[in-house]
């Protein structure tokens, strides 16, 4: 059972428990309200309401487990688990896999496999996606196992503490081996998924560094400061260096070299929602990108 525990300090003596939970544990009003209704807020072992007045040295316990369900089927599949604790699950997603069920993809998604894993391992959790990836982008994805973890990490993603690192294989050799792309991204048509660089768009910032160069190609590390849809793909294409295999933002047919865009979310740096420990997680390049690098080195 996943519980949050905290002892009341002197400064909260005589204050309401909801104030303590908001200020000390940074819990949302929604989470506190739901936990109080379900009698999952305990003070010295007794369930209390939101207006309960606490005193110094009271032992507060929040039971994070709650009965929930999702309207898609669990499916057994091979998951590449990079990290797991009582609050989060981090997976290395394979390419060509949809993250969450949609009208056109109701099964075979990563979420179907995660739900099966939770049930088989006896974990009373639903799939709360903290981060997402395009179907053809591989790499690290975070799932919150409870409302607390999902809320905490979703908020942290908006800060500089949360770092998302990608590796991209691009056409051509970048003139500057390191730099920052600060170019607003705009969606010109609501019925199209394609984005463009346009002054009417949202602020979008990508930091990049060339890791390795080949004949007319580079392996580029990208660190996102903002998280716009297709941001790396749009920005690199805007520089004149589209990603190999990117049929939406590239112009050449790379299907003989790679069957999807050569983009991999290889790194995540963030703080554990519970312990505040720094986590630096990495996932090695998938087979198809390794093969592409081998071919580029051989001049193919």
From TrEMBL:
Active-site residues annotated for this sequence? 134
GO MF assignments: catalytic activity, acting on RNA; pseudouridine synthase activity; RNA binding
Enzyme kind, highest EC tier:
isomerase
Key words of the record:
Isomerase, RNA-binding
A GO BP entry? enzyme-directed rRNA pseudouridine synthesis
Check the record and name the SUPFAM superfamilies matching this protein.
Answer: Alpha-L RNA-binding motif (SSF55174), Pseudouridine synthase (SSF55120)
**Per the UniProt record, which EC number(s) apply here?**
5.4.99.-
Coiled coil ranges: none
Tell me what this protein is called.
Pseudouridine synthase
């Amino acid at each position: 059972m996943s519980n949050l525990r905290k002892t009341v300090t002197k400064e909260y003596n005589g204050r309401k428990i909801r104030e303590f939970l908001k200020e000390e544990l940074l819990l949302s009003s929604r989470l506190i309200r739901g936990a109080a209704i379900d009698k999952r807020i305990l003070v010295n072992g007794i369930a209390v309401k939101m207006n309960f007045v606490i005193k110094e040295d009271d032992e507060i316990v929040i039971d994070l487990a709650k009965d929930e369900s999702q309207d898609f089927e669990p499916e057994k599949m091979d998951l590449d688990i990079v990290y797991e604790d009582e609050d989060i699950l981090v997976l290395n997603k394979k390419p060509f896999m949809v993250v969450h069920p949609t009208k056109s993809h109701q099964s075979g998604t990563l979420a179907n496999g995660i739900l099966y894993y939770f049930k088989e391992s006896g974990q009373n959790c639903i799939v709360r996606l903290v981060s997402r990836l395009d179907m053809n982008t591989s790499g690290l994805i975070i799932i919150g196992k409870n409302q607390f973890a999902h809320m905490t990490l979703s908020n942290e993603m908006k800060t500089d503490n949360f770092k998302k690192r990608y590796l991209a294989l691009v056409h051509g050799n970048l003139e500057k081996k390191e730099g920052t792309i600060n170019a607003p991204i705009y969606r010109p048509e609501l019925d199209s998924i394609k984005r463009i660089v346009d002054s009417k768009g949202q602020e979008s910032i990508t930091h990049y560094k060339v890791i390795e160069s080949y004949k007319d190609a580079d392996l580029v590390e990208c660190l996102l400061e903002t998280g716009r849809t297709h941001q790396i793909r749009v920005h690199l294409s805007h520089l004149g260096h589209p990603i190999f295999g990117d049929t939406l933002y590239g112009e050449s047919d790379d299907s003989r070299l790679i069957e999807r865009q050569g983009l991999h979310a290889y790194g995540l740096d963030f703080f554990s929602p519970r312990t505040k420990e720094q986590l630096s997680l990495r996932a090695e390049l998938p087979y198809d990108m390794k093969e592409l690098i081998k071919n580029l080195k051989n001049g193919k």
